[in-house]
From TrEMBL:
One Pfam family here: ABC_tran
Species lineage: Bacteria, Bacillati, Actinomycetota, Actinomycetes, Propionibacteriales
InterPro entries: AAA+_ATPase, ABC_SmlMolc_Importer, ABC_transporter-like_ATP-bd, ABC_transporter-like_CS, Mo/tungstate-bd_C_term_dom, Mop_domain, P-loop_NTPase, Transp-assoc_OB_typ1
ABC transporter domain residues: 4-229
Keyword terms: ATP-binding, Molybdenum, Nucleotide-binding, Transport
Alphabetized Gene3D superfamilies for the sequence: 2.40.50.100, P-loop containing nucleotide triphosphate hydrolases
Mop domain residues: 283-344
Top-rank taxon, per record: Bacteria
Name of the protein this chain belongs to: ABC transporter ATP-binding protein
């Protein structure tokens, strides 16, 4: 493994074990406060863990002598570019090689190469104040790569950008991260799918789920992964043809994958569009009926997404008006068992 991180940061409630293979990009997902940025800070050497180990390319970084950030050959790219305002884009990118002892001309040649790599060659002579947000972040990516880091750490690098420029930068990152050892913190499902080989989900400072990006988002086992994948998830135990949660929810469904036995931990997953919304509990065909209270209404394409805590339903605008839905309205979410996938947790 290129990166092995096992760290406890007590005052932040973080206790994480993370491995990243050489050339692999891992996306760290999780709700706010889950510990994602803390993990990056420990890896970068900006935060010393109370206990644990950080190893990079078989080098111990947190033993008796803690290796300082500048000597780790890691590069951390944050939401804000944090470029030196008094330097041109070219000299910002050349800063890393120059700090490593590379001569000025060679450092500038390297900087021009990296600016061209991220599609910013024409920005070489501009200072940060003359750059747009997307342009500045491209320069910041080039600066990080010019330092030739063994490990690249990205902390929501597109969070502060206008939505119009995000797709282009995402494609740039997808190209330049190929074959590089990278950890990227993101809340965006597209970042996870397009940039990452593997996803690790953190919650309350612990790893709760991990695996190939497509698998985690297609078959989530944690509420956060389900939410960013646009799915509903109820976790509990398999019993009498349904998943029964600790808070009393009962969701009937169709098991897939390994056979589930009575009492096995399981999750029931279903799409918001499969959920019908009623003011009164429905009768008729066998359905799961969940009594919920509307917490939010938001546009979702040509429909309205009705949120009730961690569950959601998609209805037409006409249906939302006819049901007189508003935050605080008690309703019943109903879904057919045939629309619910059940698998081991």
């Amino acid at each position: 493994m290129t990166l092995l991180l096992e760290a406890t940061v007590a005052d932040r409630g973080v206790d994480v074990a993370l491995e990243v293979a050489a050339g692999e990009t891992v996306a760290l997902l999780g709700p706010n406060g889950a510990g994602k940025s803390t993990v990056l800070a420990v890896a970068a050497g900006l935060l010393r863990p109370d206990t644990g180990t950080v190893r990079l390319d078989d080098h111990e970084l947190t033993g008796g002598r803690v290796v300082p950030p500048h000597a780790r050959r890691t590069a951390l790219l944050a939401q804000d570019p944090l470029l030196f305002p008094h330097l041109t884009a070219l000299d910002n990118v050349a800063f890393g090689p120059r700090s490593a002892g590379v001569r000025r001309r060679a450092a500038r040649d390297s900087a021009r190469r990296w600016l061209a790599e991220v599609g910013a060659a024409d920005l070489a002579g501009r200072r940060p104040g003359e750059l747009s947000g997307g342009q500045a972040q491209r320069v910041a990516v080039a600066r990080a790569l010019a330092a030739e880091p063994r490990l690249l750490l990205l902390d929501e690098p597109m969070a502060a950008l206008d939505v119009a420029v995000t797709p282009a930068l995402r494609q740039t990152l997808r190209r330049v991260l190929e074959g590089r050892t990278t950890v990227v913190v993101t809340h965006d499902v597209l970042d996870a799918l397009l940039l990452a080989d593997r996803v690790v989900v953190l919650d309350r400072g612990r790893v709760v789920e991990q695996g190939p990006a497509a698998d985690v988002l297609a078959r989530p086992r944690s509420p956060f992964a389900a939410r960013i994948a646009g799915l509903n998830l109820v976790a509990g135990r398999w019993s009498d043809g349904a998943v029964r949660s600790d808070d009393g929810r009962v969701v009937a469904g169709t098991p897939s994958g390994p056979v589930l036995r009575e009492g096995d931990p399981a999750v029931a997953v279903f799409r918001p569009r499969a959920v019908s919304v009623f003011r009164d509990p429905p009768g008729g065909s066998p359905r799961t009926a969940l009594a919920v209270v509307v917490t939010d209404l938001e546009p979702h394409g040509d429909q309205v997404r009705v949120r009730a805590g961690d569950l959601a339903a998609d209805v037409t605008a006409h249906a939302a008006a006819e049901l007189d839905l508003a935050p605080g309205t008690p309703v019943t979410f109903s879904v057919k068992a045939t629309e619910v996938d059940v698998y081991a947790r």
